[in-house]
Amino acid sequence: MLDRATDTSTKDDTTRRVRFRGAGFVPASSRFAGWIALALVIAIWQVAGSTGLVNPLFLPAPSAIVRAIYQLAMSGALWQHLSASILRIGVGWLLGTTAGVAVGFAIGLSRLARSVGITFISALFPIPKIALLPLLILWLGIGEEPKIATIALGVFFSTAISVYSGVDAVPRNLIRMAQSFNVPFATIVRKVVWPGALPAILAGFRITASVALLLVVSAEMIGAQYGIGAFVLQAGNLMQTDQLLAGVVILSVFGLVVGKVINLLEIKLLHWR
């Protein structure tokens, strides 16, 4: 009996679960650490500006930036500039994303499209899209069309690359397994390829949102009367640094909102992971 009890104890010790210690590999973060760090930086910044340690012409205090945003909102100019930028980003991003997803899947699923598409993408992707704005103005005229086309081009190439990279990353054994059961090609794409490529596609959306924001600001600085980029350029020319940083803060908040929307999409669409 003693030997049996000893064997049982030894077996329990051998099969005891060991707590996972790879905390650095767990995709989780502290809920409030980022906001606390941001609040601390803003507080130090405010103290430095209020005590005169920093020249307000070079770096206005956060209170001055908030006051500039408030005045911009009360005057109605905030919505005028913001609505123009949102319209350009929205239309350009949708056009570029739709075309990029279609081309990316074609490259990932078709040998002919891959051989042709990758060559063109490799040749055209490194070109700064903002450099094409004067040519697009010549082709499309002065108006919203060249700005939207510039954004759409920048979004298209990044989306196409992320989509066909995601399609390539889908495990081939899953596709072969579906083919062994004579599953139709369209069903394989919808049930196997699309879910497998979706994480890379959503990651590409994060990149293209930043690309669209960068391009709209650049395009508005070159040729626009309204828009956050035009407002920032005008404030910089007049050395109104509080107004300039107000525009930068608005852009940052817009980027945070877009990132939050993509997070919600990932939670909804990638719940199976």
Model description:
The structure is a single chain. With 273 residues, the protein is mostly helical. It contains eleven helices and no strands. It starts with a helix and ends with a helix. The model has no long low-confidence stretch (mean pLDDT 85). Its main location: membrane. Residues 82-262 form the ABC transmembrane type-1 domain. The chain crosses the membrane at residues 25-48, 86-109, 116-142, 148-167, 211-232, 244-265.
Instruction: Give the helix tally.
Output: 11
CATH class of the domain at 80-269: Mainly Alpha
CATH topology of the domain at 80-269: MetI-like fold
This entry's quaternary arrangement is single chain
CATH superfamily of the domain at 80-269: MetI-like
The helix content is over 70%
The termini sit apart by 48 Å
- Let me know the largest β-sheet: none
Short summary of the structure?
The protein has helices at 2-15, 33-50, 62-75, 77-109, 111-124, 133-140, 144-168, 172-180, 185-223, 228-237, 241-269.
